[in-house]
Amino acid sequence: MSKTVMVVDDSGSFRTVVKLALQKAGYGVVEACDGKDALAKLTTQKPNLIVCDVNMPQMDGLTFLRQIKSTATHKFTPVIMLTTESQEEKKAEGRAAGARAWMTKPFQPSQLVDAVNRLCV
Q: How many structural domains compose the chain?
């Protein structure tokens, strides 16, 4: 059975780029347009890994990350933050909230797939 990755980003075109790269690598993909949408989908899905943007309407990525890390169901789900944010403070905040990796946009799809391959258990 293939592993599933949830992609959380408010940009539809960006989600498509990530989805195509992951599908090509053999992963199933669930899309969410922001943190709130992702939380709703997590009630019925248990992805092996989550790729999440930081800046989104409704609920930003760090708030979403803190929320899922406080639940027993998703406490150990690895999360890769994929964002335009590159400040050390933001990265530190992400690590403190439980992010396993931090990648900045623009990104190389192959680098993302490598990170997913390493973290997706």
A: 1
Residue 104: domain span: 4-119
Which run of H or of E encompasses 68?
helix 61-69
Which residues is 29 bridged to in the sheet? 5
Task: Give the contacts of 33 (CB within 8 A, at least 6 positions apart).
Answer: 8, 9, 10, 12, 15, 56
- What string of pLDDT tens digits covers the 121 residues of the chain? 589 999 999 999 999 999 999 999 999 999 999 999 999 999 999 999 999 999 999 999 999 999 999 999 999 999 999 999 999 999 999 999 999 999 999 999 999 999 999 998 6
Sheet holding 79-83, edge to edge: 28-32, 4-8, 49-52, 79-83, 101-104
Read off the tokens for 116.
């997913």
Rounded to whole angstroms, the Cα distance separating 100 from 14 reads: 21
